[in-house]
């Protein structure tokens, strides 16, 4: 997730807060369109993206999801 936040900051010129809010809106959009039985898998996938490369469980990213 941090990698995506950095990408949004660099490529779209967003602030940290704007990038995080963008991801929150995106998650809400996707979760509203995914059947309830798949939401856990989508959340898990996004969680794996959040933890990819940093080797830690980032609680702030989990709160977003």
List keywords for this structure.
mainly alpha; 78% helix; elongated
Would you kindly provide a written description of the structure presented here, covering whatever features stand out?
With 65 residues, the protein is mainly α. It is 78% helix and 0% strand. The chain has one domain. It has helices at residues 2-12, 16-33, 36-51, 59-64. The longest helix is centred in the middle third of the chain and has 18 residues, at 16-33. Mean pLDDT is 77; it is low at 52-62.
In short:
The chain is mostly helical and about 60 residues long. It has four helices and no strands.
The rough form would be described as elongated
Strand content: under 5%
pLDDT < 50 runs, ≥5 residues: 52-62
Radius of gyration: 12 Å
Q: Give the averaged pLDDT, no decimals.
A: 77
N-C termini distance: 10 Å
How would a textbook summarize the main sheet?
none
Number of separate domains: 1
What are the secondary-structure elements, in order, as H or E? HHHH
Q: How many E strands?
A: 0
Helix content: over 70%
Number of helices: 4
Determine the structural class based on helices, strands and strand pairing: mainly alpha
Quaternary state reads: single chain
Layout of SSEs?
Elements: H1 2-12, H2 16-33, H3 36-51, H4 59-64
Helix pairs in contact: 1-2
């Amino acid at each position: 997730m941090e990698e995506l936040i950095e990408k949004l900051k660099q490529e779209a010129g967003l602030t940290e807060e704007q990038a995080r809010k963008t991801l929150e809106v995106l998650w809400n959009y996707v979760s509203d369109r995914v059947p309830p039985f798949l939401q856990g898998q989508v959340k898990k996938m996004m969680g794996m993206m959040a933890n990819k490369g940093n080797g830690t469980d980032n609680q702030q990213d989990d709160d977003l999801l």
